[in-house]
Amino acid sequence: MAVTQLKGSVFVHKASHMYYTPWVFTNNVWKPGTSTYDIVEILADSISIEQGDPTTETVDWEFGDTPLMSSSTKGERTVTADCVDMSFDIMQRVFGWTREIDTSGSTPVDVMVSEAASAESYATIVITFHPTSAPIIVLPKVSMSAKTTLGTFKTSTGSAQISGTAMQGYIDYSNKNAETEIAYLNPITSQAISVANSATDAATAANLVAVGSVTAATNGEFYLS
User: Fold this and answer.
1) Which one-letter DSSP state was computed for residue 121?
2) E strand spans, the chain
3) How far apart are alpha carbons 36 and 22 in whole angstroms?
4) Which of 44, 136, 208, 223 could form a disulfide with 202 if both were Cys (CB 3.0 to 4.6 A apart)?
């Protein structure tokens, strides 16, 4: 038997961008929206993608200690990030708050942004990294459950936590596709990252939405445009 050493030396560290694409409910169907936001003011070391421990169930054997069968259910995968930018723009577009603008004057003026009632919401989240060899992480469909924290005003600042549970979604990239909760993409210049609710939905062109196109910066790093 041949032994193959696996060593690619690709490290996932030093995040550079976090992109957020809210989904919209149209004609009784959820699908990715057409606006993607680059969220900049993210607290250091607050981006986290974690998966819970699997749950294992067994069917015991009458005549011995070895189970007749065993099945495992994977744990939920959650994503969180703390955003310290609590501008009206962020609260409206990312956290779904209601924004009121006074347009009676020559220049529109923000008047109020208020928390909306709890509602079902989804988003696509994409994370890029500084090392040019690092993959792009895509969570095609995340069930969102954001919250705000107002406190520690002297030593810290208020923050709004982007949080949610990853769900099965559809990704189309460089003529390849998959239904998955999470995917690592090799950065390929000028390749669009498109998502949909499922492969069935993606068969209808209007339901397959590009959240961004991979672009190379002058220093060789990649971002979405």
Assistant:
1) -
2) 15-26, 29-32, 37-39, 48-51, 55-59, 69-73, 77-83, 98-102, 109-114, 122-129, 136-144, 147-149, 159-167, 169-173, 176-180, 183-185, 192-196, 209-216, 222-224
3) 7
4) 208
Q: Which two tokens stand for residue 214?
A: 């991979």
Tell me, what's the pLDDT at 158? Answer: 86
Inside any domain, residue 134: yes
Residue 53: half-sphere exposure toward Cβ, Cα within 13 Å: 2
Domain contains 153:
yes
Range of the domain at 158: 15-51+73-224
DSSP code at position 155: T
156 assigned to some structural domain: yes
Closest to 10 measured CA to CA, from 137, 191, 124: 137
- Check: CB of residue 81 under 8 Å from CB of residue 18: yes
Q: What would the two tokens of residue 10 be?
A: 């690709």
Per DSSP, what are the bridge partners of residue 85? none
Q: What is the pLDDT of residues 158-210, one digit of tens each?
A: 888 999 999 999 999 999 999 999 999 999 999 999 999 999 999 988 899 99
Output the DSSP codes for 168-223. Answer: -EEEEETTEEEEES-EEE---TT-EEEEES-HHHHTSGGG-EEEEEEEE-TTS-EE
User: What average pLDDT score do residues 134-161 get?
Assistant: 89
CA 212 to centroid of chain Cα atoms:
13
What gap in Å lies between CA 178 and CA 192, rounded to an integer? 15
Residue 93 lies in a domain: yes
